[in-house]
Amino acid sequence: MLVWMASLDLDLRNGEQRLGPYRLVRPVSAGGMARVYEGRLDSLAGVSTRVAVKVIHPDFAADTDFQDLFVTEARISARLEHLNLVRVQQFNREGDLLYLVMEYIEGFTLRKLISHARRTRQPVPTSVIAEIGRQVCEGLQYAHDLAADSGEPLGLVHRDIKPSNLMVNQQGVVKVLDFGISSAHGTGDSQGGVKGTWGYMALEQAVGNSVGPSADIFGLGAVLYELCTCEALFPERENDAIREGLVRDEAARRAAASVRAELAPVLVRALQRDPAARYSSAASFGRALSALVGDPMLAHEALVQFAADLRAAEGSVQAGAQERLRSVSTIGPSGVPAPLGLPVRVGDAHGPRIERRPTAPPPRTNVLWAVGLGAFGFVALVIMSFAAWQLYRSTRASTTAAAPLDLSVLAEPPAAPAPPPPSAPVRPRPAPTPVVAPTPAPAPARTPAPAPVVVTPAPAATATPERITPKPAATPPATGTGFLSIGSEPTAEVLVDGSFVRETPMLRYEIAAGTHTVRLIATGYEAKTFKVTVSAGSESRKIWNFETAVWVDE
Q1: Does the active-site annotation cover 96?
Q2: Where is pLDDT greater, at 542 or 190?
């Protein structure tokens, strides 16, 4: 995945960029608020520990709301010590840059697993689904039961269980990530705000009520539904439509109608509208899932094998992309070629510069194919020439045939004087002379005819102001400029009116006032095109979530 690092002021071309004591090796993933890098902590005797370094985006460094979310995630995650929860090792600041150091997970998210199953039409086995759900339930139960140093329960709720926040490593261990919007006693954020991802939120969370552990149970049920069907539980795009579906208890209805028979009763209970009707705890939900697995060891082996198959498939895709990259020399700003396998975009203050790949030489043309193509062209030329000649002859024949008719018509006026020969004895030619005198009179009589022609443009002139009137309406938007801020989850390329600007997040991009067409392109997702109106002197903000295909509440 290409990631633009210029906005982060981190040049990874030589692999020596450091953040505190950590050496950053390569970008791993990017989101709307932060980015994750593979880092190394070097010590004596060449010992190097691999870690994941999560860095808050510089554009949000001064935003207190984003800082609070980042600090909350660090404070809560630092207390979590469980096999199925990602472990935090350090939280620090480098200048104005906050960063979080976590354990590095060599694996893939459930979002990638679902995409792979949908693309290859390979269904995820029921035992694998149940094993994934059981492990997530164990981690959630630990988090829900977590207590403070005083012994008082923290009442921790994750609130954002979704496929991209669940990972499976090479050993078949499922990890729960990102406690950034989790709620707990003392955080001051347990009620009143709608936070989470639409399509995975329970009803009480979607309407802004206080949430408990049952909200995480609902989120996990939605994820397992998607693992089983390879379709989102709520494909609706509008938040109001999803909320209305939750009110009508559509989640449980859809699970009953679409999920496999052995898994349906478990998910129907987890996806109930009423929190009291769901499982009483994550542990009880995990036990119900375990009942679907005959042998836990065989279920775990099936998960490991499924992970290995996915890793092999991804490896073949990456190998093909790596081979294609070998024919391209990525040159950095200083003119030094970047190492293969670490594509980095560079550019100016407005955005990255996209390297143009050299076009492949045209393939050699087969001789027989060329001869056949030439013969076909010759035959086509002969046919076209013959058709043109026939058309010309028919046109000329019709023209010559019409000529005598025109002459006969013209000959009719002189035919009128023909009758006088019988009256030839009456020779008085003076009588015709008075007739010649009136002939000049018709000539002046025809002169008024042009007068109406001159008058006719007058109505056309009156219509021209009507065509001009719309133009003043279009000019005011261009008299000023406004600002456009675009965000997305995950990071996407931003094209405004067909021109590439930069990658998200794009903050306060100055643009002419008016209506503009914006297109967001993210790797592995369907592009999103929409129109946004920017008023002079004001800012328009839009944030799109590719995973749920909905607009994020601002």
Answers
A1: no
A2: 542
- Cα 11 from Cα 55, distance rounded (Å): 15
Query: 104, 125, 152 — which closes off a domain?
Result: 104
* Span of 175-189, 284-298, 412-426 with lowest mean pLDDT: 412-426
Please enumerate in sequence order all residues whose Cβ is within 8 A of that of 118, keeping only pairs 6 or more positions apart, or say none.
230
- How far CA 536 is from CA of 109, 472, 495, 498, in Å, comes to 42, 16, 20, 21
Output the CA–CA distances (angstroms, integers) from residue 173 to 111, 301, 323, 529, in the order listed. 16, 11, 31, 38
Q: CATH number for the domain including 519?
A: 2.60.40.10
Same domain for 253 and 270: yes
Residue 495, pLDDT > 80, answer yes
| pLDDT tens, position by position, 247-267 | 999 999 999 999 999 999 999
Which member of 160, 189, 216, 249 is catalytic?
Answer: 160
User: What's the pTM?
Assistant: 0.57
Residues 147 and 227 in one domain: yes
Going by the DSSP 8-state scheme, the letter that residue 337 receives in this structure is: B
Q: Which domain holds residue 482?
A: 475-549
How many other C-beta atoms can be found within 10 angstroms of the C-beta atom of residue 188?
A: 11
